[in-house]
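Might I ask for a little of your time on a matter of protein folding? Here, with my thanks, is the record as I have it:
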Amino acid sequence: MYNVRVVYVEIGENEEGQRLDRFLRKYLGEAPLSFIYKAIRKDVKVNGKRVSRELILNSGDRIDIYITDEKLEELRPKARSTACTKQVKREFTTVYEDGNIIAVNKPFGLLTHGDSVEKKHHLANQVVDDLIIRGEFDPKSSKGFTPAPANRLDRNTTGIVLFGKNAKALRDLNRRIRRRDGIRKLYLTIAAGELNERLELSGALVKDEEKNRVTVVRGGNAAVRIAAKGDESSRDTKSDAVREIVTIAEPIKTANGYTLIKVELVTGRSHQIRAHLASAGYPLVGDPKYGDEDINEKIRNRFGLNWQLLHAWQIEFSHLEDSPLNYLEGRPLCAEPTKRFTEIAKDIFGDTNFLEIEK
C-alpha cells in the first residue's frame, strides 16, 4: 500500500490567471480529465480550502495535492533532456530576443506547431529546445508553462513568429493578436498582374475542411453579416466556418506583368492572403492552390518554383501603455526574406532593399 503525501505547488506569475482545472491538466499532463475532476473534488485544496474547478488562480496561491509519489511520477509530464535537445537541428534564425519574448524567422517547409503526422520536428519544439540549451527555460522547474508561439505561419510561409517566454508576455501577445490591438503584421509577396494602387479588401472566408481550401465571399457589409452567422469562437479548423477577413495590399514595384506587394494582414485567417489576392485578380506566383495555372507554369520553368512566395516580413507594436511589453512601442521587428525570394525579386524587379521599403 503506497502512502499518500501532500504535494505543495505555489502559483507564480507564469501560472496565475488560469482556472484550477486547466492548470492541473498541465501540471499533471498525463492524467485523464476524469482524474483531474475527481482529484479537485477529493484530493486538492487551494489555500487550505476545497474549491471549484473554475477557480481563477492568483500569484501566491498554494495548491495542496494529496497523491502518492508513484502516481505523481506517473502523471507528471516528462521533462525534455538537454542531452537529447543538443541533437535537434536548429533551422530558424533569431530576429529579436529579450527576457519576455523571442521573435524568430521561420524557414520554408517547417511547421509552426506539430500536427497528426509531424509531432516532433516543428518550430515550436526547436525554439523551446534552443531556450533549454541556452538556459533560458528550465522545464524541470516549470509548473505547466512552456514558451509557445503567439502567431502561426503555414508550412510554406516564411518569416516572423513571436514566442512568449513567460505566461504574462504570451497572454498579452495572444490577446492583442486575437483582438487586433497593437500588433500590425506585414507580409511581402510577388503576385501576377500589375497592381497600381493600394487595395483595401474585405469580405469573408468559407473553409472547406476536406479540401483544405477557402473561398472568398465578397461584398463588404454583406460578407460581414454572413461571417456573423458563423461560430466566431470556433477555430479555423472547423468545417464550413465562415470568417470575416480584411486585407490591405500596397504595390512596391511592378514589372513585366508582376507586382512586389506589401500586405497588411488585418485579420489572421488560414490562407487569407493567398485567397484574397487571387479573388481580387492578383494571385501569388507559384501558388498551387489559388494561383493561375498558366502563370505558375511560366514561373516554374523560369525559376523552378513550385510554391508561392509569401514572407511574414515585419511586426510593428503600438498602443502598449498597459502592456508588460510597452518597451517595444514603436519598435518594428523585421526579418529579411529568404535567399530564394530575394533572388527571384531581383530577377523580376531589379535590386530591392527590403529593409528600406517605406513602412
Notes: The longest strand covers residues 242-255. The two ends are 68 Å apart (CA to CA). The chain is about 25% helix and 25% strand. The chain has a mean pLDDT of 86.
